[in-house]
Design goal:
Length: 80
């Protein structure tokens, strides 16, 4: 079964496998060094400093751009 979007557009390089660009795990899964998710870190920062300019979450990984033919990349960056 191929991974197709609306209008039968291929959403993966091999027409079968999505490489894991879902936003949920990147934003909500706890990570090192503190065992908190990006969301929890930003929430903690904004609760302590509502005017903080460092409150940002990263969705895209630089390695997504290695294969120029791979359409399965995180589509939202630089959201304010």
């Amino acid at each position: 079964m191929s991974v197709m979007g609306s209008g039968r557009t291929c959403l993966s390089a091999d027409s079968t496998t999505l490489t894991g660009t879902a936003y949920g795990p990147r934003l909500f899964v706890p990570a090192e060094p503190d065992g908190l998710s990006q969301f929890d870190r930003v929430l903690r920062l904004l609760c302590t400093d509502p005017d903080a300019k460092r409150a940002a979450m990263t969705i895209m990984r630089p390695d997504e751009l290695v294969n120029a033919a791979n359409p399965d990349v995180a589509a939202r960056s630089g959201c304010t």
